[in-house]
Amino acid sequence: MKNWRDEILKHFSEPIPALTIVVDPDELLCDERIMQGLNEKGIKLVEYQEPVSFRYLFESVYRDALAKASLCLVVRTKLATLDQIPYDLLARSVQLRFSVSVLFPGLSRSILSTLDKADYERLYEVRDQYQGTGSDSEAMEFLMNHLYGVYIASVNSKTSLLRVLLSIHYADHKIPELIADYMSSKWSKISALKGLPLKEWISASGSFYNYLQIEWNNFIQGLALKGQAIKEIELEQVVHEGLSPFMEGDIRSRVDNLFAEGKLRPVKIRPGSLPKWVAFGIESDIFGQARLRLLEQIYHMSEKLEGKLTYKDWMKLALLYGEINQKGLLLSNEREDDLPTALKQLQIQVDRLFHSWVLHNFQNLSNLPYLPLPVMVHHIPHFLASQLNGSRMALLVLDGMSVVQWAQIRESLSPLFDFQQNAVYSWIPTVTSIARQSIFAGEMPIYFSHSITTTAKEEAHWQRFWANCGLGKMYVDYLRIAEYPGSYAKFQRLLPKNKVRAIVVDLIDQLAHSALQGQRGIYEEMKLWLDSGFLQDMLSSLIDDGYQIYITSDHGNRECTGTGKISEGVLAYTKGERVRVYHSKVLRDQAASQYGGTPWNSSGLPQNMHALLALEAGAFVTKDEQLISHGSMSAEEVIVPFIKVLPRGRKEH
């Protein structure tokens, strides 16, 4: 069946021009499947943002390839006109213009441009059914009905509201602000919903699930207080209709999946007097419930992995994978063989599928927009700048933190803070000097090639980025904490209360590189650190000082096994355990042929940077040596948490 992407891709049929410049204000070319379609045609997509950096990239990477006719290049720009595009490029190019107004005539562009591109496919199918006059309210009603299955009149109580919102968030619909405003304005007139943070629940799945978690806790504790064995047929007599959303059929039917996918967390309580269907949402080792719950999560994730996954799917699955592995560490003393076997099989499946996905799709990620959320680590400062809005902003970079360590941190701090969980992709190779610099520079590594092997320029990068945003260096802090401190207070005294603050904590990366007992050893060391209260004090202090807080990492880590040392003298200028980097592509390819590994090049890396990545769980160290490391392209190394921190119970506006 024809879809909206065909309307775009038909403009890139044979013969394909060597150079095409596209005015794309609605970022239609940034759709993942559009970019895949261009890749399959041998077309390279690059974004034009400002003249200096684009000229550097063009001259460094693309000019010679175009001259040799070995490349077809599409330059995408959000500029309304082509006046700023260099004349030498305009003179030799074909020019195109794409707009949502052409794809979906009659509907308001101001609304269309805010939709998630995942919704365009369904909208293209039903676009001819729209018979409105073009008013925003008619357009929003049409989109609500046909894209999200939401009808304003279907909500008349708190329970019906939660049912509708669960259907939205469980399907991963992203409701644009304009439509969220419209929905909340309509529902706020219902007496049963007055005073509720409607827009927050509609717009932010994290806030909605945080509230649903509170409802679940209250529901289970309420049942437990009855002090009697409750049969399924008696449940409605014990909990009257309307007192809990979990009495509603559609919500109740999704309970197992909400816990299996980590959207809700089990309650610690004795399960003896509770109905069987709530077992997945309570935390108890009676009858091996914890193990059974983890096995269910493993099987649930394994099924999801076999679908056709997008970059967003991998982000969500990586966070779930971290939670699964963190729970696996807690249950690692179990004698049964099925749990460790299931965890190992899941790791093999993730390694295989993510490796294939990265080879085909990673090159597209840097072209994606940083709104509504960043996709890669170099997008992070741009996103933070868009959220500043006169407030203070703090970015906490926990060097080397993987999704596994984040799951442990979240578990420790969840009684005190709420978290809006997302993820971003690191750069490959996943080494500190590349990925962490990229965070603070807000640029692809090719733009800081002169300092690619050091982290000494991070503070200067950070200050330069914010200066370009109009914020002088006297308003921008950078602090690196490389020792193992017992208290955050002594570091707090070093910093004024500036507008923007970056704090780098090296501890997790240090623990990873010194780990003698694998992830289990890191877990125990992390527990000591978290029990010291350092991170809790830091977050509480920043909140008290009025900062918005985001936590992220430059790269993750994983357990590895040595496949044998590589002895090449000075041929490789970076000799990591999971990656080796060469100035020469020929030398790199020779090493790949001789020792194995995945050759890696990316247009976002400096031109003389040719990496050889260790395969799966391998490492370029003594054969069979066990270690924790990073540098390659596994999901645990590449996908890292990006978390917004809120104090427990505070509303997000």
Describe the protein:
The chain has 653 residues and is an alpha/beta fold. The protein has four domains: 4-98, Rossmann fold (3-Layer(aba) Sandwich); 105-203, no CATH class; 361-558 and 637-647, Alkaline Phosphatase, subunit A (3-Layer(aba) Sandwich), CATH 3.40.720.10; 559-629, no CATH class. 43% of the residues lie in helices and 14% in strands. The chain contains 28 helices and 19 strands. It has a six-stranded mixed sheet with strand order 8-19-11-7-10-9, with helices on both faces. The protein has a four-stranded parallel sheet with strand order 2-3-1-4. The protein starts with a helix and ends in a 6-residue tail after the last strand.
Task: State the major sheet.
Answer: 6 strands, mixed
Mean pLDDT: 88
Give me the CATH superfamily of the largest domain: Alkaline Phosphatase, subunit A
What's the total helix number? Answer: 28
Short description:
With 653 residues, the chain is α/β, with parallel strands linked by helices. The strands form five sheets. Strands 8-19-11-7-10-9 form a six-stranded mixed sheet, with helices on both faces. A four-stranded parallel sheet has the order 2-3-1-4. Strands 13-14-16-15 form a four-stranded antiparallel sheet, covered by helices on one side.
Structural features:
alpha/beta, Rossmann fold, 6-stranded mixed beta sheet, single chain, 653 residues, 4-stranded parallel beta sheet, Alkaline Phosphatase, subunit A
